[in-house]
């Protein structure tokens, strides 16, 4: 590759990343009890630079070692949390949050304001079954929007109190949104993978007062 071209690629602060449209390209799957999941594969393209930066450079990852949500869950993974008003580790994440807020505002009635980041270093990192039920989501419908970067991992959902689970494979740049009663009436997990699995970063956008 020509040196000048290469230099200009590095100069591009987005690293060539681009968010596709949401209008007309989000597919909704209705679950039971007022829960639903929206999926938009390949929402962010060209996100290799963003992924590498988040994984290795711009995020102060910490180990998670606390009681999480409504039960004690195993959380072998690294995390970082950007609460309302905090500068996100990359302007692309601010763009993503703004785009999600705009698209979902008519249905959600409020913007996404926080970002939780999780780093799954390999297939042995995971998060066990839980709902995001800290705060208003314990009693109210909400949405949790997930932008997945890096290696593909399964996000599994199952109804609380038993029933068949539903599995989604989340790949590089994919968007998945859990909505309605999903945090209260269903649980979700990222199971361990026994196959060789590369690193993955998950970005979860939530509304005010929801963890
Ligand atoms: O890794 C994911 O995409 C899901 C993370 C999650 O459920 C959580 O942190 O609450
Ligand atoms: Fe969660």
UniProtKB/TrEMBL annotation:
Residue ranges of domain Fe2OG dioxygenase in the record: 111-209
Keyword Oxidoreductase on entry: yes
Keywords assigned: Dioxygenase, Oxidoreductase
Phylogenetic placement of the source organism: Bacteria, Bacillati, Actinomycetota, Actinomycetes, Mycobacteriales
Region (Disordered): 187-211
Superkingdom of this protein's organism: Bacteria
Annotated GO MF terms: dioxygenase activity
Entry annotated with the keyword Ubl conjugation: no
InterPro entries the record matches: AlkB-like, AlkB-like_sf, ALKBH3, Oxoglu/Fe-dep_dioxygenase_dom
Full protein name: Alkylated DNA repair dioxygenase AlkB
GO biological process: DNA alkylation repair
UniProt organism field: Rhodococcus tukisamuensis
Pfam families to which the protein is assigned, alphabetical: 2OG-FeII_Oxy_2
């Amino acid at each position: 590759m020509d040196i000048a071209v290469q230099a200009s690629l590095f100069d591009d602060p987005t690293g060539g990343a681009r968010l596709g449209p949401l209008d007309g390209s989000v597919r909704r799957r209705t679950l039971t009890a007022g829960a639903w999941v929206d999926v938009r594969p390949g929402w962010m393209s060209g996100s290799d630079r963003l992924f590498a930066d988040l994984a290795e450079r711009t995020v102060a990852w910490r180990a998670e070692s606390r009681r999480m949500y409504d039960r004690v869950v195993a959380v072998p993974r690294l995390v970082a949390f950007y609460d309302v008003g905090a500068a996100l580790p990359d302007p692309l994440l601010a763009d993503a949050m703004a785009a999600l807020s705009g698209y979902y505002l008519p249905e959600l009635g409020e913007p996404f304001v926080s970002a939780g980041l999780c780093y799954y270093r390999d297939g042995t990192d995971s998060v066990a079954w839980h709902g995001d039920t800290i705060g208003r989501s314990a009693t109210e419908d909400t949405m949790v929007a997930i932008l997945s970067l890096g290696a593909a991992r399964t996000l599994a959902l199952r109804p609380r109190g038993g029933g068949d689970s539903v599995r989604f494979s989340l790949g590089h740049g994919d968007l998945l949104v859990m909505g309605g009663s999903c945090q209260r009436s269903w649980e979700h997990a990222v199971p361990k993978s026994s196959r060789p699995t590369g690193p993955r970063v998950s970005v979860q956008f939530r509304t005010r007062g929801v963890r």
